[in-house]
């Protein structure tokens, strides 16, 4: 099935080669002499512009903050505040920053629309909801974790698929996904760019042993030897403190399930494509890692309205459980 994960498949194939992902990313990685505006990607504009424009008005009416930050940044080093002014780089407590999230929901009538809206209105952190019945698209603005929103939509009795997250503007890579597909550890990690200085991270895992596990973004997407071949914890050359890719620890319950939601400062999603996320047996990351998955570009808002898979002709609603990772975020 090739809906949201068509890009993930391509990235996984590239990662399977012996070349370090750092080489693949050489044109994306920031340097002290490179301007981010020169690395700007342009993605196809969504066809449903009326709905997209309407949803974009839900955000801050100021100019696109992320694109503006890129345009006015002459170098990566200029964006780093003095060490004395830096806040903690990783935070897992408190409310998440607001993002737009798009779902494809199997709706057929106005009654379906009313049911979906009424359900989401009861979810804490949801600020506003817009529904396109003809396109079967539900767009939610808020700080609610993806897992909570997805479960709420599924409780309406309708089929639900996450199709995009971020802001409806044209700037670099706004979202990424890393899928763990077993045989022991299953899960999904989603990263979304909130602004140039902040990324939102949400993760859900199953199959872990109870207790604390370290996890990190590692240098390479080479899974030839599992987590062992993914290199060291990702640390940009201009990073003087702890490695930027250090994600701290996860704590799994007695059933081996772990859920995380938080933010990471100075993390740029565009710099992570082709690298990997690794999970360790212990909290101090002393072992070589028990599981790893490549980080692939994921669809942003307005980038994925496909309902038909061109590879096998099936629709998004005909997909089976084998097409999606068991642990959902």
UniProtKB/TrEMBL annotation:
GO biological process, one term: superoxide metabolic process
GO MF annotations, alphabetized: copper ion binding
Entries under SUPFAM superfamilies matching the protein: Cu,Zn superoxide dismutase-like (SSF49329), HMA, heavy metal-associated domain (SSF55008)
Cofactor: Cu(2+)
Domain of life: Eukaryota
Record's keyword terms, sorted: Chaperone, Chloroplast, Copper, Metal-binding, Plastid, Transit peptide
Location relative to the cell: Plastid, Chloroplast
Major subcellular location class: plastid
PANTHER family in the record: SUPEROXIDE DISMUTASE CU-ZN -RELATED (PTHR10003)
Full protein name: Superoxide dismutase copper chaperone
Organism: Pyrus ussuriensis x Pyrus communis
